[in-house]
Write a structure and sequence with these properties.
mainly alpha, Helix Hairpins
Amino acid sequence: MKRATLSPGMHGKERPRRALLSGLRGLAGLALLSALPLPATTPVALLGPAQALAQQTRNAKEAAQDRAELARDRRELADDVADVRRLEALVFDLDRARAMRDVTAEMRARNRIRAFLNREIAETRREVARDRVEAKRAARELEAERSEVAGDRRELREARTYGSPREREDAARDLRLDRRDLRDDRRDLRDDARDVAAAKARLVKEREILAQLRALQPDIRRRVAGAEARERALLERFLALVRQDALATAGERAEDRRELREDRRERIDDRQERREGR
């Protein structure tokens, strides 16, 4: 059986197409070229895998951050509860020293309370700084998700023009899922912004109470009537702030659990995309 001989530069299945392209001339050739079928690899196929890989990498990073924050929240909640009990014990010691008219014990209790308040204010300053970092990170994640949704919209338009029914279905599904993730990221940013505002407000109040306690000490030493009652009221206000801090930490822990569940859901979506070869 005779075998077809390929001419120089012509190889396999490319020979008919290259021969056709080399023979195209003028407007008639351009019209014929425009009628040729599009290549199998469209922009949808080119853009999809890279975009999916970037999303998978970002989801994995966010999940690791959420797990770290959840572990930190557990430690902070235990510390906050211990702080509440510690300040309650210190105030109790001060009350007992007053009742016993033990001036030395009163001074010792006040010194310990003052040291505790200073440590608590320093911790609140650190919380404000950390919450700001988390809010900035949430803003970056939101911006990345917005870009993801914009890319999904572009891919869906291309799929509707050039893609197969399967590609159109996949592009529509990606857009739907990323819109859901965008809503989650918007909520996360609102939560982080609220945490920043709450921590800053608590810091202002704590500093005000500490300043008032310091200003009150001369009257305390001179046993001015009503000074000890005002001191006790200020300590109760500070104690209320410490309790609020513990409750806020418990709320942040619940938020981090929710975010971790969301990231797990996104990773499940990513695995499904990889199984589908997208």
